[in-house]
Amino acid sequence: MRAGEPRPYNLRGMFTGIVSHVGRVVEWRPGHVAIEQQEVVLRLERGGSIAVNGVCLTVTRIEAATFFADLVPETLRRTNLGELRPGDEVNLELPLRLEQGLDGHLVQGHVDATARVSGIHDVELGKEVSFELPTHLLPYVTEKGSIAVDGTSLTVAEVDQRTATFTVAMIPHTLERTVARHYAPGRLVNLEVDVVARYVERLMKNGTGA
Question: What does R_g of the chain's alpha carbons equal in angstroms?
Fold first, then answer.
């Protein structure tokens, strides 16, 4: 941010699923992670939020091109951040700004579950990638609906109730600009279902007295 520019008002803990940069883990130890990404660091401040692989973290320290964040046990249990090691790449997204358009869908940075990549198929324009779908998330994932995978907003192409999997189509741009380029069967990813689907279900339950 240049001197004299008004500071944009960020909606803390609210994202769009549009990954802006890929960062590199330079330090990982129990309870702490350090990630290097020069362009992102220039827009961060201590105490601010950032989504790392779709997980909303608080920036605790900034040094040169690196930012630091704490990882509490709950985060390590519920996300794939516990598997990170120095050299790994991660998806990064800064919080949604009031003046910013909503290109993806509303993402809170609250991971619902982790799942494994179950299959990858090359198609004419990119890849079709399938993921496990935990049974408790089945009601919230539907064909043509939205889901965040490692913080990336994606459109569900197919849901297979029989195998409890879902498939998304990834275009070359997504594969080039996110950690999806490293996906292989068995890789652990973070999932966050569409928050609108959750609210719709709650309203329907309340309306029927369920």
Answer: 17
